[in-house]
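ok here's GGDEF domain-containing protein, seq below lol
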Amino acid sequence: MSPAADLSLPRHRRTVEAGQLIARGAGILFTAMLMAGVFRVFPSGMPAGLVVACAAMIALMAVAQTAAVVNYRRPTGPQYAWCSAVQVVSDLVVMCTFVAAMRVYANTTTWTALIVPVVAGALRFRLPGALATWAVTSAFLPFALRVGGHTIVPGDLTFAILINLVIAFISGTQSGAFARQIGELDEARRALEHQAGHDPLTGLPNRTRLAQFADAEHGRELTVLLLDLNGFKQVNDELGHAAGDELLCETGHRIRAALRAGDLAGRVGGDEFQVLLPQTGPAEAAEVIARLRAEITRPVPVSGGQATVGVSIGAAHRQAGQDLTLETLAAQADQAMYREKSALRPAGTSGRPAPGDARAHAGPARAS
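and the structure came out like this:
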């Protein structure tokens, strides 16, 4: 998965944070206007206790807004869970304060406002979050309805608790289902992205992924290696194509094992592999080539026997600042690889290969 991939989980989280920022911003504005007497709810002026309650609500919403901004900027960061918890708790306290204040100073029942933290808990923590906030609001409701010496209308408390419970279940289950759908979508997207940039047999990067890597190294020093297995056709002919596939997979593992951190190897077709060595000059590349030869030419256990192949390796080097594309470097490495292949002396009757010979050998595995 490329780092630049815009996956649906970050997008979803940013959407949630943006919605919360807008809604909470409207809440701050509404509360400030209430404090300023814009709505003229109290002809004789705002009660001092309500002014204090409004100021506290604005402060809590400001804290929640800060946490929302942090989450919006880093939707996949390690802080996301606790910043979400800060927002849910802040919204819960604000709504409880609002309901109690309206009951005391305006004799107005506004328990429906407690739906807000229930839904917020569902959005962030799914069904457990929705049920947790519902439990807190249900415990608070009897106090809120009786505060200030008011009496509870028969059935109001039960109705409010049951309605909030239904909303908690609906919002929590829907949020959980949507989260699972997002996870499946991200998994499918990662699989498609991997498939588009990797060889299905060996799992190594393909030409597309290699080209992307080379583009990122544009203008920097780069060495390109092209590897061609010698004797691979003989393995296919004598042991079968299944054995040939096993050999290619093992060769891919060995190539990766011989490389350094930051290097990239890929399969470009058939029995050909390409290796990109960033920030690498000819001397360092020679060390990598030596390791590759040692790894690849070791016998490989395969189905029905044991296979040994050789390898021809061509290298092309680009100095920093040179304007040579991957295509040009690959063509130069290809020419160098075929020069090496042509220079190999055929094996003699003694069966001993000449130095650097890439003679293939396939035969039955020896019993241990």
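fwiw The chain is about 60% helix and 10% strand. kinda neat tbh
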